[in-house]
Design goal:
Structural class: mainly beta
Shape: globular
Strand content: over 45%
Largest sheet: 7 strands, mixed
C-alpha cells in the first residue's frame, strides 16, 4: 500500500518559480511515478514522469521549464517549475503505478496511486 501527498503549491507571478514535492509512504523506489495537472474545465494531463533505470518524460508545454527528480532514499519526488506561465495554473497531482512497465507511460489509467493534489496559480 502506497500513500502520496503533495506540497509546495501556491500563487506566483508569471515568470516566477515554484517547487512541488511529493512525499510517499510505502515503497516507491521501483515504481513509475509522474506529475499530472488538471486545469478547470480541462482533462488531466501528464506533465512529467520518471522511472528508475529508464528515461524521463516531459510534455512539450513544460519541456525546458520544468524538471522532475526523485530521491529514492527519502522516498520523495519533486517538480521544479521555472518560468511559470498563467496557463500552468492547475491542480497538480503526484501519481505512482505499481504495475510493471518497460517504458515510461503517461496514461493516467495506468497509475493506481494518487495524492490529493496541490493548487498552483500563476498570475499575470
Amino acid at each position: 500500500q502506497v500513500q502520496l501527498v503533495e506540497s509546495g503549491g501556491g500563487s506566483v507571478q508569471a515568470g516566477g518559480s515554484l517547487r512541488l514535492s511529493c512525499a510517499a509512504s510505502g515503497s516507491t523506489g521501483s515504481m513509475l511515478m509522474a506529475w499530472f495537472r488538471q486545469a478547470p474545465g480541462k482533462e488531466r494531463e501528464a506533465v512529467a514522469a520518471a522511472y528508475p533505470r529508464l528515461h524521463t518524460y516531459y510534455s512539450d508545454s513544460v519541456k525546458g521549464r520544468f524538471t522532475i527528480s526523485r530521491d529514492i532514499a527519502k522516498n520523495t519526488m519533486t517538480l521544479q517549475m521555472n518560468s511559470l506561465k498563467p496557463e500552468d495554473t492547475a491542480i497538480y497531482y503526484c501519481a505512482a503505478s505499481s504495475r510493471e512497465f518497460n517504458v515510461v507511460v503517461t496514461n493516467e489509467a495506468e497509475y493506481n496511486y494518487w495524492g490529493p493534489g496541490t493548487q498552483v496559480t500563476v498570475t499575470s
